């Protein structure tokens, strides 16, 4: 007797069922690609920043808190300046000096 017969449970019990994510025809594939491109390049919460990476930097700072008030940040990049925007926003002094 195998383990499935002894315990009375199937070896597939408890596994998640995942539907097929592969498009079945070319039209579905083209539609899926267009949706993904539109979602990636479409409008996001970036109106206030110059680059998409600025939002990523904000998320990293929210998680790891490496920008502290009143610290000096040197941004050696040159274009487009999104990281500098986040650095200025996050390191502004809390009181006027």
Describe it.
The protein is mainly alpha-helical and 97 residues long. Helix content is 45%, strand content 0%. It contains 4 helices and no strands. The protein has helices spanning 3-7, 26-41, 52-64, 82-91. α3 runs parallel beside α4. The termini are far apart.
N-to-C series of helices and strands: HHHH
- Overall average pLDDT: 77
* Number of DSSP E strands: 0
- Outline: elongated
Terminal Cα span: 80 Å
* Percentage of residues in strands: under 5%
Main sheet specs = none
Assembly type of the chains comes to single chain
Count, helices:
4
Give a quick set of tags describing it.
97 residues, mainly alpha, 4 helices
Task: Outline the fold blueprint.
Blueprint: H1 3-7, H2 26-41, H3 52-64, H4 82-91
Summarize this, please?
With 97 residues, the protein is mainly alpha-helical. It is built from four helices and no strands.
